[in-house]
Amino acid sequence: MPYRIELTAVDIQTLGALAALITEKPYPPSLGELAERLEVTITPAHKRLERLRDLGWVEWEPGKGRTIRLVKKPNSPREE
Fold first, then answer.
1. Cross-strand partners of 70
2. If I label 44, which of 10, 14, 24, 58 is the partner at 20 to 30 A Cα–Cα?
3. Please, are residues 18 and 57 in contact by the beta-carbon 8 Å criterion?
4. What is the pTM of this model?
5. Is the dihedral of CA 55, 59, 60, 61 positive or negative?
6. DSSP 63
7. In this predicted model, what pLDDT tens digit does every residue of 5-35 receive, in sequence order?
8. 20, 75 in Cβ contact below 8 A?
9. pLDDT digits over 30-56, tens only?
10. Is residue 66 classed exposed, middle or buried when 0-12, 13-18 and 19+ CB atoms within 10 A define those classes?
11. For residue 80, pLDDT beyond 50
């Protein structure tokens, strides 16, 4: 059986906030907007995104603004 990392409550909160921001506007959210939604500063918001990127949930283009996007949908079935 392959090793799987489960999403934490913080991961789920971050994905939910990101999904909400994406549906509210016709363009991707900024890191600052995500941080504001999560009620944290930029640094912890960035660390949360890095973890989700490493898990394959989000991606973005480093050095460019408003490129955060979901790769998997938060309500999609678990992959085995």
1. 58
2. 24
3. no
4. 0.82
5. positive
6. T
7. 789 999 999 999 999 999 999 999 999 999 9
8. no
9. 999 999 999 999 999 999 999 999 999
10. middle
11. no
